[in-house]
Specification:
Elements: H1 3-6, H2 11-27, H3 37-50, E1 53-54, E2 64-65, E3 71-78, E4 101-107, E5 113-120, H4 121-127, E6 129-131, E7 136-138, H5 143-146, E8 152-153
Parallel strand pairs: 3-4
Antiparallel strand pairs: 1-2, 2-3, 4-5, 5-8, 6-7
């Protein structure tokens, strides 16, 4: 691990290294954008582990599709010692029913899979709240949704 070397780098050098890492991850097709890599990495991981096909970045409402045409929106969240929030990124146009399932991944601080759940679209409205500020629904992976009998924990597929 190179973590000990990072402390000796200037802020500019750290940002340059980060940019180079993103460039390499993009070449390897692990990330598709230059945003925070957690979202792209989550989509790549889910697609590869579940045999899904990622759709074009410009596709509205879902991120991947399976061989039967089932559509998936994919969200990831990295939990850290400084931020344990389980709030996923915004879900836009929930009422349009653009996807069949939401796959949500919680990572630990080292970007290791902690939990993966498959949530049917039909129950998201029961747990998400609409935020006028972001013009989208916000879903927090609290115990109430994780305990819902319609939510499927698929974490075991990602371990080992």
């Amino acid at each position: 691990m190179i973590a000990f070397e990072l402390e000796s780098l200037s802020n500019q050098e750290l940002l340059q290294t980060y940019s180079q890492i993103l460039d390499e991850l993009r070449v390897r097709k692990v990330v598709r954008t230059f945003n925070s890599p957690i979202g792209d990495y989550t989509e790549w991981l889910i697609a590869n582990k579940l045999g899904l096909t990622l759709v074009e970045n410009s596709t509205s409402g879902y991120d991947a599709i399976d061989a039967k045409g089932v559509k998936f929106q994919i969200k990831g969240r990295r939990l850290t010692s400084r931020n344990q929030s389980r709030q996923l990124s915004s879900i836009r146009n929930l009422e349009r029913c653009d996807f069949d399932y939401l796959i949500a991944v919680l990572f630990n601080e080292n970007v290791e899979v902690q939990q993966v759940v498959k949530i049917p679209h039909e129950i998201i409205g029961k747990y998400a709240r609409y935020s006028k500020h972001v013009h989208a629904h916000v879903l927090v992976l609290q115990q109430n949704i994780l305990n819902d009998p319609m939510v499927i924990d698929i974490t075991a597929k990602f371990l080992g």
